[in-house]
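Title: Prediction job returns without error message
Component: structure pipeline
Severity: low
Priority: P3
Assignee: unassigned

Description:
Job completed but the reporter wants confirmation the result is attached to the right record. Sequence as submitted:
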Amino acid sequence: MAVRTTVNVLFVFWFCCRESSPLLKVIMDGDAEALMDLVRQRPASLTEPCDQGWVALHEAAFYGQLQCVRILLRGQVNRCTLKNETALLLAALRGNASCVEFLLKHGANVNTANKLRETPLFLACENPNEEVVELLLRYGAQVNLSSSQGESPLHEACRHGALMICRRLLDAGANLKARNVYQIQPLFSAAQNGNAETLQLLVQRGADVNEQAGDGASPLYEACKNGHFPVVQALLTLKADANRATNSDLLPLHVAVRKNHKRIVSLLIPLTSRVRIRTCGISPLHIAADRNRDEILELLIESGFDVNAELSEEHSQMYEDRRSTALYFSVSNGNLEAAETLLEAGANPNLDIFNPLLIAVRLGWTDMAELLVRYGADVNAQMSTQPSSFPSAILLGMESLPILKLLLDNGCDARLCFRCEYGLRPHPAAISSSCFCRISGPIISMLLDYVGHAHLCSRLLDILESRSDWASIKLKAAPPHPLMQLCRLKIRFLLGVQRLKLIHTLPLPVRLIRFLRYDLIRLLKITRTLPPTQPGLPGPDWINRTQQGNSSGGSGINCGFL
């Protein structure tokens, strides 16, 4: 507010300066003799206002030129500008104590306010000046007059941490419980701006440390938000309630985590009720993961916060993907370290509607996908927006053969990729595009390594027949299949998806274990079958288009890699 008022005044001065610079120069220089000469030569010019209503007296008061004020007073002590600013108000704004005293002695109205209802006392507190405040109070300034925003002089003094002015205002009867249009009290202003001594004075005089503003924020909440550690300490010592939430159901701990104030978080953790956090519908862990506050995330986990806490329905609906866990936030941010911290602490990777693994696969983050799979992420998780049974992870991971192999090695069901309702009949044009034939062969070849008997639909046969070097892939699908492959598939099926990662613990020869884990299938050999990238091929957003096609009344078929 101080900046706004000062800028307005300076603009007005600039405007007036342009209109009558000789007079203003004399006033700015404080040249009383030159001013007297002007008075004799052009007395009428001293009372001629500029377009903003300023006369020479206003300018003299603004610049604190007492001798000029004496000369210019002449019965117009309470004359106002177009914004209802008196010479006294301008002198108080600028902290010109001598001018203030002179004007008061000569009948200036101590309570005349400008159009924003800001009195001289208000402006003297907004731009703290103890001497001016004392003068105004001595001459009868009303201490509880508020501005158009409901701000009292005490609000302004507390905001600026003007301890002596606050004490003087309170002695003069200032209302401790005055509220502005946002229902903010003076103590709130002191906490919001980090003024611990002022805050303690107000509490000594009877202010309530737990009074809330219109949005439900408490003084403690505001101090935590702005990182005022000494104020937070003072408030907690004064029994401020760490479990008082805002209208948005956020606690001081939530906002301290969001703003990355670790020391304040450490203070609040032992004072914050876990039950209260559950009723808020959002855990500090969610915020720490969302904002990549890794150190605070570890601190919260060490303090026993539930790593599997889920967002309430109300909070979850704020996100298009309906995310619910802290792990999802870390994965979607690509924060591998935070994701690993959560998983090591027991985070379940399969709680969200849209599995975090699908995010990592879709974005091609191999390390993240590997981490999630290692901790039990469901490789067969499906997208709720995809009507077909084609494996979502494979659909999203086709552009990365390393990720595709990771999924298949860990039990992603490749058999579903070969179930096509069209069989040998013609396929609709929407799903028979040849845009991705460049990569279809190697993908089909890899998928066939993880299935037994598979029937290739007419579209797959067309793709494989389009290139002579893919003839061997077509033969791979034809029976009979090698007994070794069928045995491997049977053993892996009997083990089940969750126990595949334990194959290495079986009492079997190393070569057999490697065979069961597909370690003998070299990814390099697979990638060599890929021809060079051709210009004009579509980019990664083809996945989105595939999803949209499936979710907009698609056929429900499973040829997702076409």
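Comment from assignee: result matches the submitted record. DSSP finds 34 helices and no strands in the chain.
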